[in-house]
Every structure is written in C-alpha cells, then in structure tokens.
Write a structure and sequence with these properties.
- The strands form four sheets. The chain has a four-stranded antiparallel beta sheet with strand order 1-8-3-6. Strands 2-7-4-5 form a four-stranded antiparallel beta sheet. Strands 9-12-14-13 form a four-stranded mixed beta sheet.
- Helices cover 54% and strands 10% of the residues.
- Strand 4 and strand 5 (37-41) form a beta hairpin.
- It contains 28 helices and 14 strands.
- By secondary structure, the chain is of the alpha+beta class.
C-alpha cells in the first residue's frame, strides 16, 4: 500500500467531504478540530474512524508537522471485511477510536462546566456593574442580549455512564486480544461509537455556541459589551476615585477570562485592550473634565422650553411633557421594567410624537428653524441635562452639517419628510402594508369620508406627509432602536453605547458598507427590465439595472435596521427603503448585510407573486423554502448537516426568511472570503441566485467544495454571454453603434 506524504499545515479532510477511506498515521501529528474542541492524533491513530459510519466528515483534520498516511479504501459496507481480514488493523481502529472518544468526552465535560461557571460570572459581573453605577449616580447601560439570556438547559445531554461504558468495552477487547473477536461485534462497536461520538460533538457545538454568545456579551466588535461598560464607567469617575481600583481589578479579570477562549477574535481583543491601557494611562488625576462643554453654546440652554414654544402645542400637552421628561431625567434606572417606569416611557412616547408633528408642520413654513428644534427633528433631542451637556454641545455643533445627501439616497428623517411633502417621494406603506392611496380609498369605502374628500386628500401634501409621520415613523423608530421593552424616543445619555462621532451614519460609511456587500454579491441590487429597439431588430431583451436603496436615518441611538419596502408603488425599478438609526450602535456593514438579505427575499417574493414558494418555478425563495421544508428527507445532506439545520431553525424561531438571512450573512462574511460555513445545498442555492463577483469566483475555483456549483454556474453564464456576443456581432454587422444598455448588460454578465 502506497504511503502518502503531506507537509505541515495542510488540511487533509474537512467538514462535508465524503469518507471513502480511513487513514493510518505512520508518522507525524494531525490536529483534529470541531466546533467546541480539538485533539491530536499521532502515529498509530486512524483518521476518519469517527465518521465512517455516517458517510461524511464533520471533523477537520490538519497536519501540524510533516505526516505520512497509509490509506485503506473502505466504505461502511467494507469495514466488516477489513476488520475480519486484518486483525492488527482492527485493533488499531478500536484503540484509536476509544482514544478519540475519550478526548472528545473530556472536552465536553470541561465545556459543560465552563458554560455553567461563565454564565454565573457574567450575571454577577453585570449585577456588580449596576451596583457601581447606582453608587455613583449613573444610569446603568442595558446590555443587549442579557435580558433573554438564561442558564443552559440541554434537551438531550451526554449520559454519565458513556465514558465508563466504552472503557469497559476497551478492557474487554484488550483481554480478548489473543482470541479473534467476531467481525460483527467489532463492527457493531464501531457503529455505535460513531453515533455516540457524533451526539457528543453535536452537544459540544451547542456548548460552544452558547459560550460564544456569553463571550460576545463580555466583548464584541460592536462595543456593546460589559468590557466597554466597565471601562466607560472607570473613565467617567476618574482614576482617583475610591472605586477605580476595584473597577480596574474587574476589568483585569475580564481580560484573563477572554484571552483564553477560542471564540474570541484575538485581533479585536488586542486592539481593545491596547486602547484601554492607553486611555487609562492618559486619565488625569481629576475625576473628570471640569470644563462645561456646553458653556460655549447658549443655543442649548433651556432646550425643552424652546422646543415646546416652537411647536405651539397646547399648554396642557406642554406641561405634561415637561413633567414627564423631568421625571424620566431623575430616574436612576431608565430601563427599569417595573410598571411605573414602563407607563412613564409610554406617556413620553405619545407626547413626543404629538410635539414632533406640530413642530414639523410649523417648520414647513419657517426658514430660520432654531438649532435645538433641528436637533429635536434629527436626533430626538429634548433636554440638555437628559442628553448630557457634552453630548448636547456635540449635537449642536453638527446639526447644520449632517453628512447626509438625498441625491445619493441618504436622508435624515426630516429630509425624508420634506421630500414627501414636496412630492419628490411617495409616502411609505404603513405597518399593515397599505399605501397612502389605498388608505384614503379605504376611508371612503368605509364611509368615513366622501368621494370629494378622497380627491382632496390625495392632493393634499400636508395630509400625505402626516400619513408618514403618524402611520410609519413611530413604528420604525421603535424597531430601529432595537430594545423594544425599554424604548423611549427622547435622546438620553444612558442610551449612548458608543462614541457619537464614530457611530454617526454618513454617506461615506453607507457607501463603504454597500461597496463591501457588492464586492461579494455583485448583483444584489440589480433588477431585470425589458429593453427594446425596433431600429436594431431587438424585440425584447432582459437587461439588469442597479437600483440602490433609499436610506432613512431615524432620530435615535439604535442597534437594528429595517428593510421596510422593496419597491415604491408597483414599479420594480424603484429604490427600496431601508431605515437605520442616525447613531448606529451596531456594526453598520453587518446591519446592511442583513437588510440586503431581507431585500433579496422580499424582492423575489414580489417578482414571483403567489408562487414564491412553488419549487416548480425555480427561484431563490422557492428553492430555499423547499430545501428547509424537506431537509430531513434530503439524502444529499449528512446527519451532521441536518443537525446544524435543526439547531439553526431553532435560533431563527422557525422562520424560513430569518434562516435565509443567517445563511446570507455567512455567504457574504465567510464563504466569500473562502471560509466555508454552509452545507452543499444552501451553498448551491446561494451561488445560483447570489453569485460571487468574478474575482472571488476565480479564487474559489481550486476549492473542491465549490467545483460542482461553479461548473453549473459557468455553463449558464456561458450560454448568456454567447447570446450577447452574437447580438453584438449582429449590431456591428449592421453598422450601428452598440446601445449603451446592451454594452452595460454584457459588462454586467462579465463581472
């Protein structure tokens, strides 16, 4: 049998590849890795023996030094013959199998203990943070995800007796070494062990994901984490405060907890820790900056009264709003879930929109809007003390120079409302998916208005913009904020989770996010339209045109985005509408990746109509729907892949669209970078309908996981390019210039 040689660092086998052979290591060391753990295989160990019974790898094997392997071509059906004909190899298989099982069990037991301990560590750390905040009169920041976090409970756990059970089997095999064990016994032992190992690794994956979620609450790239909360509190109270030493001790302990975990992004960790040390070093001996940052701006003094006076609301509304804002400002825990706090937030919310509407209508006929009123429109700002004087001064300094540009599709909410009022944009559909015309018609058919009033309302710009203000703005403002249970529309310092200057959404940051998405999924925002040219004999050609979305910035500090509608009216070449917070506390690119996935799904449903999930009419939604609906019966999916789908569907709350969005995120962030995350079926669907740009396709051609899908795509692309080459030649032969639409379509296909 020919020995195969492999250099250090080479991936031998990875997840989803079929197991067609087992391999005996005759020299060197191999690292076996799976989500949640890894172990080493050395001379005498057998690769693939854990997965042979299931038919495909779910462990990745990589050499850590030069390795020699002796392959034994062997399917599940051939295993019994191998074990009965080769007693020595049979023994190696059983001993290596037990060694691998024992290593996986040890890691499971450690991970189980770590999850329990880390959960309590995280909860205790947040409670301690809240106590520090209360002591220093600071509102504790809400940690996104903590409210839904619970102690890990497994539906199906590893039985306590499993390790001892196999240890006894190994002892039995050793004691019977001089006797020939029956091949049926050995095969049965191997088959059952394969099933048990797969179950343990599946549970390890759950533990790994759970622990990664906990780690993400401690530190993540969006800085909405406990590390930032503690560091921010330390910066705020100053290095000479009595509690600063205690805070630094907690932060140091966090670093110890973080640096050893596999799920942490170590580059991010090093950067965050370096920033912390630099900031700590630069802290002055004073407890804070005594300079009144707002002192240079008289505009923001007594902001609430200025806003109320400008809005011209009635005295009762003005008084109620002032009292409610004052009560809210004095609350230590503004995110409290108790009944009185919830009712106060609801009261402020109702009054806020009443004031906003009145102020906006007045501003339509005012060319000198006060700065604080502009701050109110664009940021939800109402009070300098509630916002914090430094934050109020910052908002005042930027409100006349916001980095938006309606000509490039980026609007503040105020700019968007003005565009609707001036007839440049139609109002959005409301939360019941009803547009303004249908809404007015419904009023007429229900007898609430007359036919004459219907005609008047359809031409009344003020009524049109009020539809957006009353039926759309409140819902979207709450959704984009993201923390629904603690939502309050007024700008408050306790909601600032990142520096305002770095979280302010701009044309540049939006373009950067979309350019990244389009560099991977180049056709994301292209729509098919029909081109005709009778002079050239072109009766009908489908060409693709790119239509980027309109982005409307909600006046809040939020963590979510909304893909509100995929087109305007019924015309498919109109921009979609996406809403995000003007101060985005999450990573903007990640948010737009999710919104792009949402757009792709909804646009496909719009095009396909009632048959969007009918697999007899192939489309993105129909094929993906069919894939998820029948994954359990799909023979092309391994047992491991099916288990992953089951777990993912639980996380997606059984939503097919949410499941697709998660897969699309993996497609853009990982698969496009050459790091496989999806199974072969999901990958094929995504490649068919969301193909990579040519540069990425060329890079991935050497990867066997993409080979079959890439070949199918190239065949279809070749057919379309052949058609356009013929069309080009036909036009050239006629002596006519190539129409720019046809030229652009050919370039699109070649991208």
């Amino acid at each position: 049998m020919a020995i195969k040689e492999f250099p250090a660092g080479e991936i031998l086998f990875q997840s989803e590849q079929p197991v067609t052979s087992i391999h005996l290591i005759t020299r060197g060391t191999v690292q076996a890795t799976y989500p949640g753990g890894s172990f080493q295989l050395t001379k005498g160990d057998v690769i693939g023996i854990c997965e042979l019974h299931l038919g495909s790898y779910y462990i990745t094997y990589q050499t850590t030094e030069p390795v020699s392997l002796a392959p034994y071509p062997c399917s599940k059906a051939q295993l019994s013959d191998l074990m009965s004909s080769n007693v020595e190899m049979s023994g190696r298989i059983i001993f290596s199998l037990y060694k691998q099982l024992r290593a996986i069990l040890d890691q499971y037991e450690q991970a189980r203990t770590d999850c329990d301990q880390f959960y309590h560590y995280l909860m205790d750390s947040y409670a301690q943070y809240s106590s520090f905040c209360t002591k220093h009169g600071v509102s504790a920041r809400a940690l996104p995800g903590l409210e839904t976090l619970s102690e890990l409970v497994l539906d199906e756990d590893v039985p306590d007796w499993l390790g001892g059970y196999y240890a006894q089997f190994l002892s039995l095999v050793k004691n019977s070494a001089s006797k020939k064990m029956s091949s049926a016994f050995m095969f049965g032992l191997l088959s059952k062990a394969n099933d048990d190992i797969h179950q343990v690794i599946s549970i390890c994956r759950i533990l790994y994901d759970y622990k990664a979620d906990l780690i993400g609450l401690l530190m993540n790239e969006n800085r909405l984490d406990l590390f930032d909360f503690y560091a921010g509190l330390l910066y705020r109270i100053g290095s000479n405060e009595a509690d600063s030493t205690a805070l630094q001790a907690v932060i140091s302990d966090m670093m110890v907890q973080l640096e050893s975990h596999a799920s942490i992004d170590h580059d991010m960790y090093e950067k965050r820790v370096s920033e912390y040390h630099d900031r700590l070093h630069s802290l002055s001996a004073h407890t804070g900056d005594s300079t009144d940052a707002a002192g240079s701006s008289a505009d923001i003094i007594d902001s609430l009264n200025t806003i109320l006076s400008y809005s011209q609301v009635d005295e009762e509304t003005a008084f109620a709003f002032k009292v409610a804002v004052e009560q809210f400002r004095k609350m230590t825990d503004k995110n409290s879930s108790d009944d009185s706090a919830r009712k106060l937030r609801q009261k402020i919310t109702k009054l806020f929109y009443d004031v906003y509407e009145k102020a906006f209508l007045r501003s339509l006929h005012d060319e000198s809007i006060p700065k604080v009123v502009k701050m109110f429109f664009n940021f939800g700002y109402v009070d300098e003390q509630l916002a914090g004087m430094k934050n109020a001064a910052y908002l005042c300094s930027i409100v006349d120079y916001l980095p938006t540009d309606p000509s490039k599709g980026l609007y503040t909410l105020y700019e968007w409302l003005l565009a609707i009022y001036k007839g440049k944009k139609s109002p959005s559909r409301n939360e019941f998916d009803t547009d303004y015309q249908a809404y007015v018609h419904e009023l007429k058919t229900s007898g609430k208005i007359t036919a004459a009033e219907e005609t008047t309302m359809l031409g009344d710009n003020e009524k049109i913009v009020l539809f957006e203000l009353q039926s759309v703005f409140p819902s979207i403002n709450k959704i984009t904020f993201g923390r629904i249970s603690s939502f309050c529309p007024v700008f408050s310092e306790h909601n600032i989770l990142k520096d305002l200057d770095t979280s302010l959404v701009s044309v540049a940051s939006v373009e950067e996010a979309f350019n990244h998405i389009r560099s991977v999924d180049f056709s994301a925002y292209y729509r098919d339209t029909i081109y005709t040219n009778a002079d050239l004999g072109i009766a009908k050609e489908y060409i693709s045109v790119e239509v980027l979305p309109d982005i409307i910035l909600m006046p809040n500090m939020g963590i979510r985005g909304v893909m509100w509608q995929e087109i305007e009216g019924r015309k498919r070449t109109t921009p979609s509408r996406m809403m995000v917070s003007i101060f985005q506390m999450e990573d903007l690119t990640n948010i737009f990746i999710r919104l792009t996935a949402d757009f792709r799904w909804e646009m496909c449903k719009r095009i396909q109509g009632p048959r969007w999930n009918d697999v007899t009419e192939p489309s993105l939604t129909s094929e993906y729907f069919d894939y998820i609906q029948f994954y359990k019966k799909n023979h092309e999916l391994s047992t491991d892949a099916k288990e992953k789908i089951k777990l993912s569907m639980q996380k997606a709350k059984n939503s097919f669209k949410e499941m697709f969005i998660r897969d699309y995120e993996s497609w853009v962030l990982y698969e496009g970078a050459g790091s496989p995350r999806l199974n072969k079926i999901a990958r094929a669907i995504l490649f068919s309908y969301c193909p990579f740009s040519k540069g990425i396709r060329d890079t991935l051609k050497a990867n066997p996981l993409y080979k079959e899908t890439m070949e199918r795509y190239d065949v279809k692309l070749g057919q379309r390019l052949h058609h356009y080459n013929n069309l080009f030649q036909k036009i050239k032969n006629s002596g006519a210039p190539i129409p720019p639409e046809i030229q652009a379509q050919k370039e699109f296909l070649e991208y």
